[in-house]
Amino acid sequence: MGAMFLAGCSTVGQKTAKPIQTISAGDSRFRYEGRFDFADANSPVVIWQASRLSINFEGDTLTLLFSVAKAQNFFNAQVDGTTTIVEVNEGTPPKGTTFAGLGKGRHHLVLFKRSEANAGSVHFNGVQIAEGAKVWAPASVAYKLKIEFFGDSKTVGACNEDGNTDQWDNRRTHNGALSYAAITAEAFKADHRNISVSGMGIITGYVEVKAGEMWNRIYPKASSPPADLNSWTPNVVFVNLGDNDESFTRTHNQPFPESFTDGYVSIVRAIRAAYPKAHIVLLRGGMSGGMHSEPLNKAWKDIVTQLEAGDKDISHFVFKYQAMNHPRVAEDHKLAEELITWLKQQDFMKSYL
User: Fold this and answer.
1) What is the pTM for the complete model shown?
2) Cβ–Cβ under 8 Å, residues 107 and 58
3) Interval 315-333: pLDDT, tens
């Protein structure tokens, strides 16, 4: 394993640092919510956007411990309700990992991965707190609803804190915590997973991996080990794919993929096989580009007809609002409001309201 990253190292001439203790990431008092790589229980890999980990602790300071950062990783770190951004990028010292001046008493930490899986991953090694300070497991949450999103950049929250122009060099402005997916989940106080990859298509797209190759994997790549789909099962699954198949082929002067409909149907049926009791919602739209595509519109109608005819627990929803670029935060709120309003009217949601 690579070197562990720490923040707040002492400097010669300063006062001697107070004794500290390390709480390993494998400590049972940490709560993990999301799809992690737990091959090493003491150094789990944080991969997917919307993955969360939390713990309660006492003492005036806390330092997050990471190692083996791949590419870019940004987190929202919330301590006692105050949120700051933690940055752990490959080849540079981590930023924002030490919290001081917290005061005496008991504190609550929630770490939320805001940047997407395909932009980077990092090992979490635990926390350091004052020697003798205690930690506790957070209070258990009895979620009435568990939801899972499969999608692309719209669902990730890509570019939603950018200015007028989409940018991909610095993922700090790609905030999955304010994606329409996260906002929708919060409205229902739901536990949620966001298994989405920017640029990904059913048949083709701007990244190598295809949706059918990674929806059930630990990492966003075809070679990844499979995820344990039995340890956490959603009540409602949302699928929002297809725009990249249309955009990529159109911009490269290629015909729309003939196998798109069959590919989409195949993925949804695989999801159904994995989650036989879930309600599946096929989502369409959110960005204006693909909404005016005749081949995509035709394929979408065929997909909905095929899937809904054979499965009473599949339905569809089309967003009215369409962002010109990737949705910004205000637009994510508009999309979420549409989806939330529709969901509250559906029979399959009655037991979760």
Assistant:
1) 0.94
2) yes
3) 999 999 999 999 999 999 9
